[in-house]
Design a protein that fits this description.
By secondary structure, the chain is α/β, with parallel strands linked by helices. It folds into two domains: 2-140, Vaccinia Virus protein VP39 (Rossmann fold, 3-Layer(aba) Sandwich); 166-235. 52% of the residues lie in helices and 19% in strands. The protein has eight helices and seven strands. The protein has helices at residues 4-10, 39-49, 63-70, 99-105, 135-139, 146-200, 205-215, 218-235; strands at residues 2-3, 23-28, 50-60, 81-85, 93-97, 110-118, 121-128. The protein has a five-stranded mixed β-sheet with strand order 1-2-3-7-6. A two-stranded antiparallel sheet has the order 4-5.
Length: 236
């Protein structure tokens, strides 16, 4: 069994050190859930090294993962090949595939043996079809299938929504940091006032600053307004 995921970690371009038709079983549990550029070239390469009677097993994201990431219900007709940004860091991208898209595109070079879930994982099992095929032919959209355009438009909408959520999340984090910094400045002011009080009594400058903070109603009264403002911005 050839582990394509491991090979992909070591290989920067679609070229494997194997002879044509030399591999009877290839597995790619996660590779095509993160391959954005070069996925078609890699499929052509895997097709080259796969034996005529060999099997290629590719893992795909489950619809539940899409729901959790976007907050939208999975709609197979509007997924196609959808690329989203991961939440755990910049530059991480996740790729989702609908069944109709896999059959329409990958089916040009492979026969689909099975497509479904097994052991809590979603996977497609492929065998090689005969004939010549290029990466461009795998990528080519079918102009007669309205789902192609709908999926592309929806992918753009998903990405815009993700950017909006990320901006709101970062803004909330900045506001939280500013509030924590303000509390820390107040704490240090009170600590300095205590030390100054011990040295200079109630009339010292630090003690007056502390008293001013303590007596101020604006900080206490505006806190609920700040919280409300964050909620309103988050719900927009």
């Amino acid at each position: 069994m050839f582990d394509f995921d491991a090979a992909l970690e070591r290989t920067a371009r679609p070229a494997l050190p194997h002879a044509d038709g030399s591999l009877g079983e290839i597995r790619a549990p996660e590779a095509f859930t993160r391959l954005v550029e070069g996925w078609a070239e890699w499929l052509i390469e895997l097709r080259r090294v796969l034996a005529d009677d060999g099997r290629l097993e590719i893992g795909l994201f489950r619809p539940e993962s899409f729901d959790e990431l976007t907050g939208y219900a999975w709609d197979d007709s509007r997924i196609g090949m959808t690329v989203l940004s991961a939440l755990d860091g910049p530059g991480h991208r996740l790729v989702f595939h609908s069944e109709w898209w896999v059959r329409a595109h990958w089916g040009r070079g492979f026969d689909i043996v099975s497509f479904g879930e097994s052991g809590g994982r979603r996977r497609v099992v492929l065998t090689k079809r005969t004939g010549e095929l290029t990466a461009d032919e795998l990528r080519r959209s079918d102009p007669g299938d309205e789902r192609e355009l709908a999926a592309a438009q929806q992918n753009t909408a998903y990405l815009v929504d993700q950017l909006s959520r990320a901006e709101e999340r970062h803004q909330g984090e900045l506001e939280k940091q500013r509030e924590e910094m303000s509390r820390e400045l107040m704490r240090r002011s009170f600590a300095a006032a205590d030390a100054e009080w011990a040295r200079g009594g109630p009339g010292s400058p630090a003690a007056l600053v502390a008293a001013e903070y303590e007596a101020s109603t604006s900080w206490r009264l505006t806190k609920p307004l700040r919280e409300l403002g964050r909620l309103l911005r988050r719900d927009r």
